[in-house]
Design brief:
The protein is of the alpha+beta class. The protein is built from 24 helices and 31 strands. The protein has a domain of about 120 residues: Aminohydrolase, alpha-helical knob region (Penicillin amidase (Acylase) alpha subunit, N-terminal domain). The strands form 6 sheets. An 11-stranded mixed beta sheet has the order 1-31-2-3-7-8-9-10-18-19-23. Strands 11, 12, 13, 14, 15, 16, 17 and 21 form an 8-stranded mixed beta sheet that branches.
Length: about 800
């Protein structure tokens, strides 16, 4: 049940450590609270971000080094040839524009802030070079030390939520084989009339089956290690690695495919007129991959002109989700398509030339040398057209494929424009800051001390006059973008009459919106949003506790559309009939201890397979395996001609056959006693580390966190996915009551630290696994009341 942890007794006088750090201008105090949050008090802006970089790098040194190597394309130097494709992709997609223009987009003093942040990181790196005890365990296992950063590493795009290029190619392949009509039927493209997804005659359908996005996918893929990568003493056995690698691969595939639709996030703001306290509320729980260490990191930044607290990715300066003295803000993904796959004809006499508007243009080529462990450096040729990086060249068909990426424009680094939001004092200033937020496409919500609430969609949005952006198009000039829509013109609202604003990656854009050609087509199923609206729209005044309960709510709106179909369908099999009766008596809450919830989830899986078998022709089923829940419910609610001459009877037979299959599966796995079929019996959270598959059993136990039974699924507000292991969801949560800042609460699993030997590596998992929160203090007296360690950072003599 949602709630806040009790405060353990604090030491009468927290320990004080003093550090002499070269590069600081004045004394800085860092108060570490009992949950591991650094509250940084500096006397100037430079030292504030210097201390943030230093503190975060020291807490998350392994993540920082992996980020640096992925950003610079130097993983093969550590791992060997297996990572060469990743490094080539990283260099191919490196931002090569003006750093000055890029930094200025994030903040008027962006270059100075990023520079100070990097100086702080390098201060830690230099210390680790002198003191091996500061090198994290993972890097010791790899036999390396942290490397020094440069400002361009901070603005790498490799880990952002960037666009839909994978979907675009998959859609193109689907249309090439099975036709545009079937794609429209299987997918839920909206809002507005159905988009055009036919392939242009210039596109060679057979050519789309080539490994076109191999470099892009390698550049974006999460890091996974093998036993041979590690020092001998830490290596796991090959059989265990292969088993875990298969599981990881399937999980990664699900995440890649569904990240824009299902990983999602929730946020909402409630006006002061609708709360018990009369103060506005903001709640946010972004959903991304769940792993150890945590993706996000809480920090408090206090200096002249700055007093902001909240979370973000540790390698990024500032705060992405949080509050200052004036307002609070949060984010969820908004459907913005900033990528296109362009296909060119190349010159048979000169493959380095491509056709554009009837003439041959020559690709620009950059040659780079990539260090490879155990080998001589590899030389790679990186090619570019006027539209962007060449990801694949089909010399047999005389074709070249290019990714046109809006995120390669200045200002395309993920979340960096949060620096402007961190200093906003009013809704108007917050919207002005949002106008610089290019990546990702987000729903930004705002709640302020005056009780106001607002919503502004952000993200750089290409204007497509001649295509939907859902399938590959020729790069010959006919499908060029017509510039970008000013972000401030994207959908927004301020103090709506409902008294609340909620977003859950669902479509909020009306069909009458005038800039439809700059808005995406792929959105989340509507069920999380429907539950949020059901609770917030009840007319009842709400409290902080209500917000905690809603963030961890496991009510299944989707099941309300499916289970009633069983009402008049008694089963002939006794066990199936007991399962049917259990479902009909169920409260539709996917509690981890609920037997009915366990039956429902097994039934839903069988049902999805069955309905897809009926609706989708056999050759296309594998490509249509991620059909949305909304489509499944629509097909069953109003079965069409695919269900045969008597669609209703066929549907009813399918409902019972799927339940028979679910009962048989659960019986085989857990025995005939239904009391052992609870949802948490086979739905759990085991937080894996990037090195999990490579480690021996003893080390794996140190680094992994869990398992623990979980409730919910991918369509509940408390989103935990539909798989047996929760690989995505809300690892980070934050709830804020404007102008009562010390009442804020948060969650961040498994902990603030990435150091496996730190008490803060896994301490927050105990709260998170039971859907509980810890206090996030803001005022100096409140922070001092929960401080466990005071660090004084002084300039080196």
């Amino acid at each position: 049940m949602a709630g806040v942890s009790d405060l353990a007794a604090q030491p009468a006088t927290p320990r004080t450590d003093t550090l002499r750090v070269a590069g600081l201008q004045q004394r800085v105090e860092v108060l570490r609270d009992r949950w591991g949050i650094p509250h940084i008090y500096a006397q100037n802006e430079h030292d504030l971000f210097f201390a943030q970089g230093y503190s975060a790098a020291r807490d998350r040194a392994f993540q920082f080094e992996m980020w640096r190597r992925q950003a610079t394309g130097t993983m093969a130097e550590v791992i060997g040839r297996r990572e060469l494709e990743r490094d080539q992709g990283a260099r191919l997609f490196k931002y090569r524009g003006s750093l000055e223009a890029d930094f200025a987009n994030y903040h008027p003093r962006g270059a100075a802030i990023i520079g100070a942040f990097v100086e702080g990181i390098n201060a830690y790196v230099d210390e680790a070079a002198r003191n091996p005890a500061l090198v994290p365990a993972e890097l010791r296992m790899l036999g390396i030390k942290p490397g020094r950063w440069t400002p361009d590493v901070v603005i790498s795009r490799h880990q952002g939520l960037l666009g839909n290029i994978g979907e675009e190619l998959a859609n193109g392949r689907f249309v090439a084989k099975y036709g545009a009509a079937l794609l429209q039927k299987v997918q839920w493209f909206h809002p507005g009339p159905a988009p055009k997804v036919d392939l242009d005659p210039m596109i060679d359908p057979a050519g789309l089956d080539a490994p076109i996005l191999a470099l892009y996918d390698a550049f974006r893929a999460p890091m996974r290690f093998q036993p041979s990568d590690l020092q001998t003493a830490y290596r796991g056995d090959t059989a265990a690695y292969r088993r875990l690698a298969t599981i990881d691969s399937l999980a990664d595939e699900d995440i890649r495919w569904n990240q824009r639709r299902d990983i999602g996030s929730n946020n909402w703001v409630v006006a002061g007129s609708r709360t018990l306290s009369g103060r506005a509320l903001m709640a946010n729980d972004p959903h991304r991959a769940i792993a150890a260490p945590s993706l996000r990191y809480f920090v408090h930044l206090n200096a002249p002109g700055w007093n902001v607290i909240g979370g973000g990715e540790p390698v990024i300066p500032g705060v992405s989700i949080g509050h200052n003295e004036y307002g609070a803000w949060g984010l969820t993904v908004f459907g913005t398509d900033g990528e296109d796959l362009y296909v060119y004809r190349t010159n048979p006499a000169n493959p380095a030339q491509y056709q554009y508007r009837g003439a041959w243009e020559t690709m620009r080529t950059i040659t780079e040398s990539i260090p490879v462990k155990g080998e001589r450096p590899a030389t790679v040729a990186l090619r570019y057209t006027r539209h962007g990086p060449v990801v694949y060249e089909d010399t047999a068909r005389h074709l070249a494929y290019v990714v046109r990426a809006a995120w390669l424009e200045p200002g395309g680094a993920p979340y960096m424009a949060s620096l402007r939001m961190d200093q906003a004092k009013t809704w108007e200033e917050f919207r002005a800051a949002c106008n610089y937020s290019n990546i990702p496409g987000e729903n930004m919500v705002w709640a302020d001390v005056k009780g106001n609430i607002g919503w502004q969609a952000v993200g750089i949005a290409p204007i497509r006059r001649n295509s939907s952006g859902l399938v590959p198009v020729p790069g010959d000039g006919r499908f060029d973008w017509s510039g970008y829509l000013p972000i401030i013109e994207k959908p927004h609202a301020y103090n709506p009459p409902e008294g609340y604003i909620g977003t859950a990656n669902n479509n909020l854009t009306p069909e009458s919106y005038p800039h439809r050609d700059a808005i995406g087509w792929s959105w989340a199923d509507p069920y999380r949003f429907a539950r949020i609206a059901e609770v917030l729209g009840s007319g009842r005044r709400v409290s902080m506790m209500d917000m905690m309960r809603l963030q961890t709510d496991y009510t299944s709106i989707a099941s309300r559309g499916l289970v009633p179909m069983l009402a008049a369908l008694p089963a002939s099999n006794a066990a199936t009939e007991r399962a049917r009766q259990s479902l009909l008596a169920w409260d539709n809450v996917l509690d981890k201890n609920s037997v009915a919830a366990g039956i429902y989830e097994a039934w839903y899986r069988q049902l999805t397979t069955g309905v897809t078998t009926i609706v989708v022709p056999a050759p296309a089923r594998a490509a249509a395996r991620f059909v949305s829940t909304k489509r499944v419910i629509e097909w069953l609610t109003s079965p069409g001609g695919e269900f045969g001459p008597n669609p209703g009877a066929t549907r009813d037979s399918l409902l019972l056959a799927a339940l028979d299959g679910a009962v048989a599966e659960l019986t085989q796995r857990y025995g005939p006693d239904m009391s052992g079929w609870a949802w948490g019996q086979y739905h759990h959270a085991m937080l894996q580390h990037p090195m999990s598959g490579a480690l021996n059993a003893e080390q794996r136990k140190r680094f992994e966190v869990g398992p623990w039974p979980r409730g919910g699924d991918g369509n509940t507000v408390g989103a935990t996915g539909g798989g047996e292991n929760q690989t995505s969801g809300a690892s980070f949560r934050y709830i804020v009551e404007a102008n009562d800042w010390d009442s804020s609460v948060g969650a961040n699993t498994p902990g603030q630290s990435g150091d496996v030997d730190s008490p803060h590596y896994r301490d927050l998992f105990e709260l998170w696994k039971n859907d509980r929160y810890f206090p996030v203090k803001y005022s100096r007296p409140a922070v001092e009341g929960v401080t466990e360690l005071k660090i004084v950072m002084a300039p080196a003599r």
